[in-house]
Design brief:
By secondary structure, this protein is an alpha+beta fold. The strands form four sheets. A four-stranded mixed β-sheet has the order 5-7-12-9, with no helix packed on it. The chain starts with a helix and ends with a strand.
């Protein structure tokens, strides 16, 4: 197919009818030249015409001594009239010749008179760069004359091998644009091999293989998980679950939280021994059935370490009601992990090195630094004073850096929740944008990456934004909205906010 731009290029060295008319408007036709020269004398004609002509004064002088028609000439008059002439056989004096020629034209005078006349050679030279009527007719044979119209059939013939703008538009309409195309139907793509980590398109077959081959961890496993997709060899941790249904045997691990009433029976517990209705499970993982029997007749409780208790009736109803008072750091010595679902109060980490968990807190005020190896969930948000001179909310260590090359569209790899990207310095034209992929192993599709220009770029010339976020990568777009083509090295700071 011929593009519209090709058509314009093919016609760029062709003359329009209007251009030809303009070029010929300041040229003389041969007929015009002949008309202009028709009333002009050639030099040769002038010389011939003047060679046998007498001046009026010469004629009067020559006839002054002659009689007019009808008169007679006296002999004496004849003698007088011929006194200045030589008789037959006589010689003419030099002085007489000079007198006779005094009223004749010299050659130099003739040349002066002809100096403003055109020579034939001059006329030929003037016409040498003019067009003949026949040449003009040949050149204009394919064009319409001034005031005439081009036939529709001629136009149709001339345009028969040309593309209409509408034809070009119709041909391009079903095509997808190169920038951000949107496909319909069932587009297909090659399936990458397992473990591929590039900007190549991931098909559903590739995603399915990656999911089934992955090893989920407790910090990222959320939602409903099909038991058929998780085996004992691939699942190492599930973190905190709000709901769990297990059809097989659970071996090892630590569990906390509340189990539904009567959801666990003797048949669900794998322990040594044969249990019955009065058996209990001992700390060594064995069932034990007491051999004795009796009745408790008296119960007493000694208050200690901030714990107080009361007995409803020590003889008949030995139920104990416990209450927890203030426990000072020196009143409790913890040799293991201290956990609790409703632990509240003031906790000094430096004085309580053995506290590994505090359960669910309704409020927490921290005056120093807090190091957490797991996940912190704040239902009502985390607040920091805007006037604080400390570090505020953010990541204090572990930031990564990377330098992009060889172009501004080249993908980069930088792992971590924050970091810095030094872009390539190739030119970014005015009014254009460039996008590149940031491969990052910690980012998830629900996260919010934030990107700003830190340095290396002219102020007020660029805008930067994140256009897409997927598991393991996000896309950054830099736009030059200035009126200049810029060759600079922007340095971008980024931070990843964890989303849900």
């Amino acid at each position: 197919s011929v593009k519209y731009s090709d058509t314009a290029s093919m016609l760029s060295n062709r003359l329009k009818i209007s251009d030809t008319l303009t070029m010929l408007s300041n040229r003389l036709k041969i007929s015009d030249t002949l008309t202009m020269l028709s009333n002009r004398l050639k030099k040769s004609d002038t010389a011939t015409m003047l060679s046998n002509r007498l001046k009026i004064s010469d004629t009067l002088t020559m006839l002054s001594g002659y009689a007019k028609s009808g008169q007679s000439v006296k002999y004496s008059d004849t003698t007088s009239m011929l006194t200045g002439y030589a008789k037959s056989g006589q010689s003419v004096k030099y002085s007489d010749t000079a007198s006779m020629l005094s009223n004749r034209l010299k050659i130099s005078d003739t040349l002066a008179m002809l100096s403003n006349r055109l020579k034939i050679s001059d006329t030929l030279s003037m016409l040498s760069n003019r067009l003949k009527i026949s040449d003009s007719s040949t050149m204009l044979s394919g064009y319409a004359k001034s005031g005439q119209s081009v036939k529709y059939s001629d136009t149709a013939s001339m345009l028969s091998n040309r593309l209409k703008i509408s034809d070009t538009a119709n041909m391009l309409a079903p095509k997808a644009p190169l920038l951000s195309p949107t496909f319909t139907g069932l587009p297909a793509a090659p399936t990458a091999s397992y473990g591929t980590n590039t900007t190549q398109i991931a098909t559903t077959a590739f995603v399915n293989t990656a999911v089934l081959s992955a090893t989920p961890s407790g910090s990222v496993l959320t939602g409903s998980v099909l038991a058929a997709n998780i085996t004992s060899s691939s699942l190492t941790s599930v973190g905190t679950l709000s709901n769990l249904t297990v059809s097989g045997t659970i071996t090892g691990g630590t569990f906390s939280g509340t189990l539904p009433s009567k959801s666990v029976t003797i048949a669900n517990i794998n322990a040594s021994g044969t249990p019955n209705s009065v058996s209990y499970l001992r700390g060594d993982g064995t069932w034990y059935t007491p051999n004795g029997a009796g009745t408790v007749t008296s119960v007493s409780v000694v208050t200690a370490n901030g714990i107080s208790a009361s007995v409803t009736n020590p003889n008949t109803t030995p139920s104990i009601s416990l209450s927890l008072g203030n426990i000072t750091p020196t009143s409790v010595t913890a040799t293991g992990a201290v956990t609790g679902a409703t632990l509240a109060g003031t906790i000094t980490t430096a004085s309580q090195p053995n506290i590994t968990g505090v359960g669910s807190l309704t409020g927490l005020t921290v005056s120093g630094d807090v190091s957490v190896s797991g996940t912190v969930t704040a239902t009502n948000g985390i607040n920091a004073s805007a006037s604080s001179s400390g570090n505020g909310i953010g990541y204090t260590s572990g930031g990564s850096t990377v330098t992009q090359t060889p172009s501004k569209s080249t993908a980069v790899t930088v792992n971590g929740y924050s970091g810095q990207i030094t872009m390539d310095n190739n030119r970014l034209n005015s009014g254009t944008a460039v996008s590149f992929v940031v491969n990052n192993s910690v980012v998830k599709s629900t996260d919010v990456p934030l990107v700003v220009i830190a340095s290396g770029a002219s102020t007020g010339k660029y805008s930067v934004q994140v256009d897409a976020v997927t598991n393991g990568s996000f896309t950054v777009t830099l736009y030059n909205y200035s009126n200049n083509n810029l060759t600079e090295t922007p340095v971008l700071n980024f931070v990843i906010m964890r989303g849900n």
